[in-house]
Amino acid sequence: MFAVNWKNDDEIVKLLDWALVHEPDRHDVYHFALLTGFWAGEIQSMTPAAFDWQAKTITVHSKDTRNHDRVDTVPMHADLRVTLTKRCAGKASDQPIFNLPDRTATVLQRDCTAAKIDAQT
Q1: Using CA atoms, how far apart are residues 101 and 81, in angstroms rounded to an integer?
Q2: CA–CA dist 112, 121 (Å, integer)
Q3: Do the Cβ atoms of 97 and 88 come closer than 8 Å?
Q4: Contacts by 19-25 with C-beta closer than 8 Å and gap 24+?
């Protein structure tokens, strides 16, 4: 997930509400990050193949701190299913479903400022 020092849940809701209106693609990224705990690189690697709709799980391939391959499977939060279904529609199984901006922390900080949130990234 993106590292932010949230003061309370209201700030998270405020960011999501702002992003839904002003930056819908980033809203989906923020919502996904908050409900999975995944980091930006893990989110960027998400493809339709990462989702097991029957088992309702998400599998992420990443590297651990020693650069070893790592595979984690987490439950798919019910609130993500509609968004993920839409984002996967028409995509090849290996095509990314999220397009994160360069310098995600900077963009997140800007979005927090625009949403009138004093968050430190």
Answers
A1: 23
A2: 10
A3: yes
A4: 19/111, 19/115, 22/114, 23/111, 25/98, 25/99
The domain segmentation of the chain, as residue ranges, is 9-114
Side chain identity, residue 59: T
The C-alpha atoms of residue 1 and residue 64 are separated, in whole angstroms, by 15
Q: Which residue has the tokens 């019910």?
A: 78
Q: Which residues does residue 52 pair with via DSSP β-bridges, in sequence order? A: 57
Question: Given this structure, which CATH class describes domain 9-114?
Answer: alpha beta
pLDDT tens digit sequence for 64-95? 667 678 888 999 999 999 999 999 999 999 99
